[in-house]
Amino acid sequence: MRPLKILFLAANPTSETRLRLAEEYRRILEVVRGAEHRDRLEIRFEPQVLRQDLLPLLVREQPTIVHFGGHGTPEDELIFVDERDHASPVDARALGKLFAELEDTTRVVVLNACFSKVQASAIAEAIPCAVGMSTAISDEAAIEFAHIFYLALGEGSSVQAAFDFAISQLVIMQIPEEDTPQLITRADLSADRICPLYPDGQCPEKATELEGWWEHEGYFPGNVGHSFVLDIQNQEGHALTSDSDQFKKGDLILRINTQTAERFAGECLDPETGEWIGVTAKLGKDYSGNKIITVDWAGGANTGMKPK
Predict the structure, then answer these.
(1) In the chain, where are the structural domains located?
(2) Is pLDDT larger for residue 80 or for residue 239?
(3) SS3 sequence, 181-227?
(4) In CATH, 4-201 is 3.40.50.1460
(5) pLDDT digits (tens, 9 = 90+) for 155-210
């Protein structure tokens, strides 16, 4: 499975007010290294990005998430650097055109810079989600926002949930800038359905609890093309019920290809290996009369799993 790559682009021109970008990167790196899914996360830091190097970096790295730390201007520009480390601006139109070429690989762009909402809006014409700042933002607010945003994404949250958590952190820390970050989503998408850690960057289908079983539109556990989780370690099975649900090592994420009311066949994604494995399952009862799911996958024995 392709890792989720975060590309941190920093620009701190000597001709502008110096920013605490090294600390911002350190706080993001801290949560990436401590994330439950850290083996599926990768971060690359570019400390002083030249304007002419922006496009080659993006093409070469093919990041899932692009994070810009630096300055923005009221003229709707982001400030990169030139060969003398002086300010070198790129306007919103150029940024929109550039990121339009990355719509197949990049899911999220975070512009952690003053006056960057217009630039984020231009980027979100093609990229699913972009974050920009409606006005000036302090170093303290920018660092706290980024820290919690990536902490939540690293635990499997949707972009919307991660954004909301980050805003809540500003309120908790009594930093009165919670209205400054703005989340902009491409017109045909919803940020609460975009989960960069999941396959294809999409959150699994939600389901509702029904008499101790999880059912979606009359079927257990979901319709064709939907996903749910089997927790092998704890011998339990459940459908994903909210964006806050997580999967971990030992879980199997299942993709249903064919299904009846009592049996399904499809493939499971093993986070340990990143491989899809053929799988079938059916509902039944154990010797005590308890409902269980019996799962059979290639090369493995049947495993009975009780519903949570």
Answers:
(1) 4-201, 208-307
(2) 80
(3) EEEEECCCCCHHHECCCCHHHECCCCCEEECCEEEECCECCCCCCCE
(4) yes
(5) 888 999 999 999 999 999 999 999 999 999 999 999 999 999 876 787 765 433 32
